[in-house]
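Minutes, project check-in
Item: structure for the 275-residue chain
Input as provided by the requester:
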Amino acid sequence: MNTKELTLRIVSLSDVLLHEQIETRRVEVLITRLKNDWLLKNPPIVAQFDGKYIVLDGASRTTALRRIGCRDIVVQIVDYDAPGILLESWNHLLLDLPEPKLLAALEKIPGLQLEATTAAAAHAALARRASICTILLADGRALALFGPDESLPAQARLLNQVVAAYEGRGDMYRVAHTDLERLLAEHGRLSALVVFPQYRPADIRRLTLDGAKLPMGITRHIIPGRVLRINIPLGLLERDESLENKNAWLDAWMQTKMAERHVRYYQEPVFLFDE
């Protein structure tokens, strides 16, 4: 990958929009870390659209910087429509949550309809976006969840209530597949698998610009060439100075890093133990 393909920019936080909810505990941990280090190590990744910047990865970092009073933020801007950028969905694996408690919590959600069906029919309803999600129970039964309004923002709002209904009631893990037999073999405590729709970049743009948000931990952006370890001082981001001047500093900083060969590209996957 050529370093000329990298686009790092300092932008106003007021122009940065989230497409997903945030986890308060995660944000609080990041606030503590940011205050201790006083550095932004990894820039959020954004897509530019209509003069705004939609966060694809880094909602917690963005929120933490807002809460500690930074005016601006360093972002990595990517082309959302580039062939190398993929948008997939995580599914939620629920453990140690008794089925009666799960169903009772879901039945309390106003306007939510639970329809018992086959796994194939549930997946078909999800694929055509008639349902908001599918729940596969441990015994193989399937539930398709419907709302009264099939518009994307309305489905997102209802989906937030669904996730809130089971969040914190048992253990929850994100998984990328829907192989129930495999999950049962790996997790004897499996209660259910919640399967979410496959969103498109256009959906994310529309939701974000409409002010709606998906639950955290559903969208999975696969983005090659992520920029890490920039270690930008937060003093630069919080001070009252023009974006033009700040970006001039950032451009000079990048040129120096490249000239001194401090920028490395790792094509192979890596494991990080300090996140």
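Outcome recorded: The CA atoms of residues 6 and 76 lie 7 Å apart.
No further action items on this chain.
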